[in-house]
Amino acid sequence: AQSVTQLGSHVSVSEGALVLLRCNYSSSVPPYLFWYVQYPNQGLQLLLKYTTGATLVKGINGFEAEFKKSETSFHLTKPSAHMSDAAEYFCAVTSGGSNYKLTFGKGTLLTVNP
Amino acid sequence: GAGVSQTPSNKVTEKGKYVELRCDPISGHTALYWYRQSLGQGPEFLIYFQGTGAADDSGLPNDRFFAVRPEGSVSTLKIQRTERGDSAVYLCASSLDGTDTQYFGPGTRLTVL
Questions:
Q1: In sequence order, what DSSP letters do the residues of A28-94 get, joined into one string?
Q2: CA geometry: angle at A2 spanning A99 and B4, to 5°?
Q3: Which of A43, B17, B20, B88 has its CA 20 to 30 A from that of B106?
Q4: Does the distance separating the beta carbons of B33 and A43 come in below 8 Å?
Q5: Residues 6 or more apart whose Cβ sits within 8 Å of residue B1
Q6: pLDDT (tens digit, 9 = 90+) per residue, B42-70?
Protein backbone atom coordinates (compact mmCIF):
# COMPACT_ATOMS: atom_id res chain seq x y z
CA ALA A 1 0.00 0.00 0.00
CA GLN A 2 1.14 3.51 -0.68
CA SER A 3 0.38 6.77 1.04
CA VAL A 4 1.14 10.47 0.76
CA THR A 5 1.61 12.98 3.56
CA GLN A 6 1.51 16.68 2.86
CA LEU A 7 2.88 18.68 5.78
CA GLY A 8 0.83 21.80 6.33
CA SER A 9 -2.76 22.02 5.21
CA HIS A 10 -2.31 25.76 4.71
CA VAL A 11 0.79 27.70 3.65
CA SER A 12 0.86 31.47 3.41
CA VAL A 13 3.62 33.41 1.65
CA SER A 14 4.20 36.94 0.49
CA GLU A 15 4.27 37.80 -3.18
CA GLY A 16 7.84 37.33 -4.42
CA ALA A 17 8.79 34.94 -1.62
CA LEU A 18 9.90 31.34 -1.97
CA VAL A 19 7.16 28.73 -2.14
CA LEU A 20 7.89 25.37 -0.49
CA LEU A 21 5.17 22.73 -0.26
CA ARG A 22 6.18 19.49 1.38
CA CYS A 23 5.29 15.98 0.32
CA ASN A 24 6.44 12.65 1.73
CA TYR A 25 5.34 9.32 0.39
CA SER A 26 5.51 5.66 1.22
CA SER A 27 5.59 3.03 -1.47
CA SER A 28 6.81 -0.54 -1.58
CA VAL A 29 7.91 -0.20 -5.20
CA PRO A 30 9.62 2.61 -7.10
CA PRO A 31 7.02 5.34 -7.26
CA TYR A 32 5.80 7.69 -9.90
CA LEU A 33 5.18 11.08 -8.25
CA PHE A 34 2.95 13.96 -9.25
CA TRP A 35 1.94 17.44 -8.21
CA TYR A 36 -1.48 18.70 -9.23
CA VAL A 37 -2.97 22.16 -8.70
CA GLN A 38 -6.65 22.89 -8.22
CA TYR A 39 -8.00 26.38 -8.75
CA PRO A 40 -11.46 27.19 -7.39
CA ASN A 41 -14.24 25.55 -9.40
CA GLN A 42 -11.76 23.99 -11.78
CA GLY A 43 -10.41 20.50 -12.32
CA LEU A 44 -7.04 19.26 -11.18
CA GLN A 45 -4.23 20.35 -13.46
CA LEU A 46 -0.91 18.53 -13.65
CA LEU A 47 2.03 20.71 -12.62
CA LEU A 48 4.79 18.16 -13.00
CA LYS A 49 5.61 14.49 -12.62
CA TYR A 50 8.54 12.23 -11.88
CA THR A 51 8.71 8.75 -13.37
CA THR A 52 12.35 7.82 -13.93
CA GLY A 53 15.60 9.56 -14.76
CA ALA A 54 16.56 13.03 -13.60
CA THR A 55 15.39 13.60 -10.05
CA LEU A 56 14.86 17.35 -10.44
CA VAL A 57 11.69 17.87 -12.42
CA LYS A 58 10.56 21.16 -13.88
CA GLY A 59 6.92 21.89 -14.44
CA ILE A 60 4.61 24.62 -15.58
CA ASN A 61 4.37 28.11 -14.13
CA GLY A 62 7.93 28.03 -12.79
CA PHE A 63 7.41 25.17 -10.34
CA GLU A 64 9.87 22.37 -9.79
CA ALA A 65 10.22 19.37 -7.50
CA GLU A 66 13.03 17.07 -6.52
CA PHE A 67 12.64 13.35 -5.91
CA LYS A 68 14.77 12.32 -2.93
CA LYS A 69 14.59 8.58 -2.49
CA SER A 70 16.56 8.56 0.77
CA GLU A 71 14.12 11.00 2.31
CA THR A 72 11.03 9.61 0.53
CA SER A 73 10.19 13.18 -0.38
CA PHE A 74 9.00 15.11 -3.40
CA HIS A 75 8.77 18.73 -2.25
CA LEU A 76 7.42 21.40 -4.59
CA THR A 77 9.18 24.75 -4.89
CA LYS A 78 8.94 28.02 -6.76
CA PRO A 79 11.54 30.76 -6.27
CA SER A 80 9.12 33.69 -6.37
CA ALA A 81 5.41 33.47 -5.59
CA HIS A 82 2.86 35.26 -7.71
CA MET A 83 -0.67 36.15 -6.71
CA SER A 84 -1.96 33.78 -9.39
CA ASP A 85 -0.30 30.84 -7.61
CA ALA A 86 -2.96 30.91 -4.91
CA ALA A 87 -4.69 27.54 -5.15
CA GLU A 88 -4.78 24.10 -3.57
CA TYR A 89 -1.91 21.77 -4.35
CA PHE A 90 -2.04 18.00 -4.23
CA CYS A 91 0.84 15.55 -4.20
CA ALA A 92 0.08 12.09 -5.57
CA VAL A 93 1.83 8.77 -6.06
CA THR A 94 1.30 5.66 -8.10
CA SER A 95 3.20 2.42 -7.82
CA GLY A 96 5.29 2.08 -10.93
CA GLY A 97 3.92 -1.29 -11.95
CA SER A 98 0.31 -0.38 -11.47
CA ASN A 99 0.59 3.22 -12.33
CA TYR A 100 -2.97 4.23 -13.09
CA LYS A 101 -4.25 4.43 -9.51
CA LEU A 102 -3.30 7.82 -8.10
CA THR A 103 -3.09 8.06 -4.31
CA PHE A 104 -3.39 11.69 -3.24
CA GLY A 105 -2.38 13.61 -0.17
CA LYS A 106 -4.91 15.78 1.62
CA GLY A 107 -3.74 18.90 -0.13
CA THR A 108 -2.09 22.17 0.84
CA LEU A 109 -3.89 25.46 0.37
CA LEU A 110 -1.46 28.16 -0.73
CA THR A 111 -2.34 31.77 -0.13
CA VAL A 112 -0.20 34.59 -1.50
CA ASN A 113 -0.27 37.93 0.29
CA PRO A 114 0.43 41.19 -1.55
CA GLY B 1 -9.12 20.85 -27.86
CA ALA B 2 -11.93 20.08 -25.46
CA GLY B 3 -11.04 18.75 -22.06
CA VAL B 4 -12.89 16.33 -19.83
CA SER B 5 -16.42 17.49 -19.16
CA GLN B 6 -18.78 16.42 -16.40
CA THR B 7 -22.48 16.93 -15.97
CA PRO B 8 -24.19 18.14 -13.96
CA SER B 9 -21.81 20.50 -12.20
CA ASN B 10 -23.99 20.37 -9.11
CA LYS B 11 -26.55 17.81 -8.00
CA VAL B 12 -28.72 18.05 -4.92
CA THR B 13 -30.77 15.02 -4.01
CA GLU B 14 -32.60 13.54 -1.08
CA LYS B 15 -31.47 10.61 0.98
CA GLY B 16 -32.54 7.35 -0.61
CA LYS B 17 -32.76 8.67 -4.17
CA TYR B 18 -30.90 7.41 -7.23
CA VAL B 19 -28.42 9.64 -9.09
CA GLU B 20 -26.39 9.44 -12.27
CA LEU B 21 -23.26 11.45 -12.94
CA ARG B 22 -21.89 11.73 -16.45
CA CYS B 23 -18.34 12.06 -17.75
CA ASP B 24 -17.25 12.91 -21.29
CA PRO B 25 -13.55 12.13 -21.68
CA ILE B 26 -11.09 13.68 -24.07
CA SER B 27 -11.63 12.25 -27.54
CA GLY B 28 -9.35 9.30 -28.24
CA HIS B 29 -8.58 8.55 -24.60
CA THR B 30 -9.08 4.87 -23.92
CA ALA B 31 -8.63 5.07 -20.16
CA LEU B 32 -11.18 6.68 -17.85
CA TYR B 33 -11.14 7.06 -14.08
CA TRP B 34 -13.54 8.12 -11.35
CA TYR B 35 -12.37 9.63 -8.07
CA ARG B 36 -14.27 11.00 -5.09
CA GLN B 37 -13.12 14.05 -3.13
CA SER B 38 -14.67 14.59 0.26
CA LEU B 39 -14.39 17.91 2.04
CA GLY B 40 -10.86 18.56 3.24
CA GLN B 41 -9.48 15.45 1.61
CA GLY B 42 -7.59 14.56 -1.52
CA PRO B 43 -9.31 12.65 -4.29
CA GLU B 44 -9.78 8.92 -3.71
CA PHE B 45 -9.77 6.38 -6.50
CA LEU B 46 -13.04 4.66 -7.29
CA ILE B 47 -12.79 2.85 -10.63
CA TYR B 48 -10.69 2.59 -13.79
CA PHE B 49 -11.97 1.71 -17.27
CA GLN B 50 -9.83 0.56 -20.14
CA GLY B 51 -12.11 0.78 -23.14
CA THR B 52 -15.54 -0.52 -22.24
CA GLY B 53 -14.50 -2.72 -19.34
CA ALA B 54 -13.85 -1.91 -15.72
CA ALA B 55 -10.23 -2.94 -15.26
CA ASP B 56 -10.20 -2.07 -11.56
CA ASP B 57 -13.25 -1.26 -9.42
CA SER B 58 -11.54 -1.82 -6.10
CA GLY B 59 -12.25 1.71 -4.91
CA LEU B 60 -16.04 1.55 -5.13
CA PRO B 61 -17.16 1.78 -1.49
CA ASN B 62 -20.09 -0.64 -1.69
CA ASP B 63 -22.60 -2.18 -4.06
CA ARG B 64 -24.71 1.00 -4.18
CA PHE B 65 -22.08 2.41 -6.51
CA PHE B 66 -21.83 1.27 -10.12
CA ALA B 67 -20.26 2.70 -13.25
CA VAL B 68 -20.56 1.92 -16.94
CA ARG B 69 -18.84 2.89 -20.15
CA PRO B 70 -20.80 1.00 -22.81
CA GLU B 71 -19.17 2.41 -25.94
CA GLY B 72 -15.73 3.11 -24.57
CA SER B 73 -16.24 6.86 -24.43
CA VAL B 74 -18.83 8.46 -22.13
CA SER B 75 -19.10 7.01 -18.65
CA THR B 76 -21.88 7.19 -16.09
CA LEU B 77 -21.41 6.75 -12.35
CA LYS B 78 -24.59 5.51 -10.74
CA ILE B 79 -25.38 5.71 -7.05
CA GLN B 80 -28.41 3.94 -5.63
CA ARG B 81 -30.15 4.71 -2.34
CA THR B 82 -27.97 7.74 -1.71
CA GLU B 83 -26.80 8.47 1.82
CA ARG B 84 -25.65 11.74 3.36
CA GLY B 85 -22.13 10.34 3.51
CA ASP B 86 -22.09 10.16 -0.29
CA SER B 87 -21.94 13.96 -0.43
CA ALA B 88 -18.67 14.85 -2.15
CA VAL B 89 -17.18 16.09 -5.39
CA TYR B 90 -16.98 13.30 -7.94
CA LEU B 91 -14.08 13.74 -10.34
CA CYS B 92 -13.58 12.07 -13.68
CA ALA B 93 -10.26 11.82 -15.49
CA SER B 94 -9.11 10.34 -18.76
CA SER B 95 -5.79 9.43 -20.33
CA LEU B 96 -4.51 8.06 -23.61
CA ASP B 97 -3.98 4.72 -21.95
CA GLY B 98 -3.56 3.40 -18.44
CA THR B 99 0.00 4.63 -18.13
CA ASP B 100 -0.31 8.18 -19.39
CA THR B 101 -1.02 11.46 -17.64
CA GLN B 102 -4.55 11.75 -16.27
CA TYR B 103 -6.54 14.84 -17.23
CA PHE B 104 -9.28 15.78 -14.83
CA GLY B 105 -12.69 17.29 -15.35
CA PRO B 106 -14.14 20.03 -13.12
CA GLY B 107 -16.15 17.54 -11.09
CA THR B 108 -19.76 17.11 -10.02
CA ARG B 109 -20.60 18.33 -6.54
CA LEU B 110 -23.16 15.93 -5.07
CA THR B 111 -25.13 16.98 -2.02
CA VAL B 112 -27.40 14.47 -0.33
CA LEU B 113 -29.91 16.08 2.02
A1: SSPEEEEEEEE-TTS-EEEEEEE-SS-SEEE-GGG-EEEEEGGGTEEEEEESS--GGG-EEEEEEEE
A2: 45
A3: B17
A4: no
A5: B26, B27
A6: 999 999 999 999 999 999 999 999 999 99
CB contact under 8 A, A101 and B106: no
**Length of chain A as a residue count:** 114
Going by DSSP bridges, is the β-strand pair A87-95/A108-113 parallel, antiparallel, or unpaired? antiparallel
Question: Among A9, A43, A103, whose Cβ lies nearest the Cβ of B107?
Answer: A43
Residue in A90, A100, A108, A109 to test binding to B, most B beta-carbons within 10 Å:
A100
Question: Taking CB atoms and an 8 Å cutoff, what residues of chain B touch A93?
Answer: none
CA angle B47, B52, B54 (to 5 degrees): 25
SS3 call for B93: strand
Residue of B39, B4, B37 lying closest to B22 (CA atoms): B4
Report how far apart, in Å, the C-alpha atoms of B46 and of each of A55, A61, A68 are. Answer: 30, 30, 29
Spatial contact of A64 and A74, defined as CB atoms under 8 Å apart: no
